[in-house]
Amino acid sequence: MVDLTSTIVPVNPPGASFLSTPPPTAQAAVIVGMSGGVDSSLSAALLRDAGYDVSGLFMKNWDEDDGTEYCTAQQDLEDAQAVCRHLGIRLHEANFAAEYWDNVFAHFLREYQAGRTPNPDVMCNREIKFNVFAEYAGLLGAEFIATGHYARLDHRDDQTRLLKGVDRQKDQSYFLQSVSAEQLKNCLFPIGGMEKHAVRSEAQARGLPVFDKKDSTGICFIGERRFRDFLENYLPKTPGAIVDTSGREIGRHEGLVFFTIGQRQGLGIGGIANSSEAPWYVVDKQLATDTLVVAQGNDHPALFSRQLDCAEVQWVSGETPQLPDHLHAKIRYRQADQRCELARTESGYTVTFEQPQRAVTEGQWVCFYDNDVCLGGGVIEARR
User: Fold this and answer.
1) Among 71, 84, 220, 340, which one carries the catalytic annotation?
2) Nearest-angstrom CA–CA distance, 374 and 175
3) 340 among known catalytic residues
4) pTM for the whole structure
5) For position 154, what pLDDT does the model report?
6) Closest listed residue to residue 124, CA positions, set 209, 45, 62
7) Catalytic residue among 124, 187, 310, 374, which?
8) Which residues of the chain have pLDDT under 50?
9) Is 88 exposed, middle or buried (0-12, 13-18, 19+ CB in 10 A)?
10) Domains and CATH numbers, the chain
């Protein structure tokens, strides 16, 4: 049985676990964001058994239901309903599709049109799950909201700090980097101190019907479909040349929006005269001329950058730390922590890495850490 009332311990001793869930007070009401998956389902079960007054809420953030194999919303809803019946708790339903379109998807399209590669999951957490959902839960009388994120919260001294999840392979603090402490102060992450295998085992032991359900992958509104097929529904094709780093044209493409820095698959080039058999990678997108620049070889220098720039950084605490400072950073989910120096500039922030970073991508987020504490992050504007 998982104990949610373990003692809070000081930051960062080996093997430390944090109390992501404060002890309940007089049947405190909490609404769990139920996705129909095992993580949110076990979160609801743990909170119920810890003494909270628990109900669930299934969010529909995307209205397109084309009846294809890619849309799992109906099955996910049915799974969430089955779990709530098993637990004997109520399941609310809410449609946040309009808010998602305005605050997440419209930004997603604008970024692609600007030649960048956005991360809508970071935006979705800030704008929908910990904003619109939290407000809606408050209208339903909830004192707390909870999700199945693999992250931890340290609620102490009237402050809330965001911490990495214990399971380093599943840690999702990267996706929470732009959520403020103010948004997190009434949030609970019941499984943040657990590893994935333990979550499935605990769910099975409790008889949860989704204990062996496959984890969802990909961007939430795209599902498992080909990304290119999805984008073609919303963005026009802008054909152009594919050139190598010397400027030699070696092929044609149908639109820069279909490519990202470091991409290898789907380039449609190969067997180039006077070239080796080594794979080709995207190293630049020149929007003004619709030119895609590629380089050959996994370790080509054009794939690597030592510095990047951010116009803004969303600090979890709401306060900018004293800079310059030596921190750790991730430029993508599940990347190992990278040593860096963060400094202020006239136009924002510059990050200088100790080691060159592969495929730094404009539009993605760089997330900063002080050991286990997630400090915040910002959108990558430029690299060099």
Assistant:
1) 220
2) 10
3) no
4) 0.90
5) 95
6) 62
7) 124
8) 1, 3, 5-19, 66
9) exposed
10) 29-205 (3.40.50.620), 241-298 (2.30.30.280), 304-383 (2.40.30.10)
